[in-house]
Amino acid sequence: MELNREQNRLLIWYCHKRKLTALETHAELLATLEAQAPSYATVTRWYREFQAGRTSFSDDPRPGRPPTAVTEENIAAVQELIHQDPRITTDMLAMNVGIGSAAVDTILHDHLRVRKLCARWIPHILTDAQKQARMEFCQFLIDRYEHGSHQRRSEVITGDETFLYHFDVETKRSSAEWVPEGGQRPLKARRSRSQGKRMFAIFFDSQGVVAMVKLEGQATVTARWYTEECLPVVIDSVTQRAPRTGMRGWKLHHDNAPAHTAAATRAFLDQEGISTLPHPAYSPDLAPCDFWLFPKIKKSLRGRRFQSDEELEQAAKEAIDGIPIEDFQGLMNKWLGRAHKCLQFRGAYFEGL
């Protein structure tokens, strides 16, 4: 026969009335009830209760919220609060509605079926017109290149500018290590990206990098630098590849940065007979430099320290040389895949989804 709590307390009270000590009572109960005997801590706690004049053997009523906190009224109140402030905390919900946090969790997860997610960073909050422009560009890419000849697919030279740092920290993922079961997590001191940096313009096609031009003597890219220092290097490199045709038949793709779309740049391109591909605003996810080449180069440079721009430039060139030509040749398929994805999402950003 197994005794309940109240019966155990009755036995403790009986021993207390017999003037036994708590230790003697526990020993007597242990000898009689064996494994079912209450603990010594329980005996001493009830001795204190009886010495204080307690006469009831029942549990005290517990304070707290009633079990009926999850009501239609409270569900509606929580729904209205999260509609007014999607960032409201569960503690604030509990305080405003007047129910416990457990009831709030039940309402949120079981009744409203909501969860709290961190915001996804995107380059820009796109307008409908900007989404439409992205879709039109993607459809243009698909129409021109998806079923185009190898020659047509190879006509694009794309380029952009980016900063490379004398020291850039490794990402958390890139510093991950395999450890045995039960092993300690690796430790790594937190570091900051260096102040030393240099901007480079890099242009490439299906055969590899065409030109890499370092920005010197100024902090930002201007139309003058772009047309007098940068693009002439690209043109010379292409002309050395194809002396007879030069840039004729090639299509230059760059984004719509001010230096790329300035009147002086457009005039220079017209004068050189260079045709360009369009590019929608706020669309680094559709620019091969941004979604493919630059991340590859920077991943190779992370965690390494360079003492000069020359060391940095040489390391970047080595990183580029390490990219197989097949990757450059297959880039158009990646670009078209992104175009289809953009159309699938009606012009909205799709990375991270």
Automatic annotation (TrEMBL):
Protein's name in the database: Uncharacterized protein
Domain of life: Eukaryota
Residues of the Mos1 transposase HTH domain: 9-53
Domain Tc1-like transposase DDE: 166-312
Signal peptide: none
GO-annotated molecular function: nucleic acid binding
Lineage of producing organism: Eukaryota, Metazoa, Spiralia, Lophotrochozoa, Platyhelminthes
InterPro entries: Mos1_HTH, RNaseH_sf, Tc1-like_DDE_dom, Transposase-MT_Hybrid
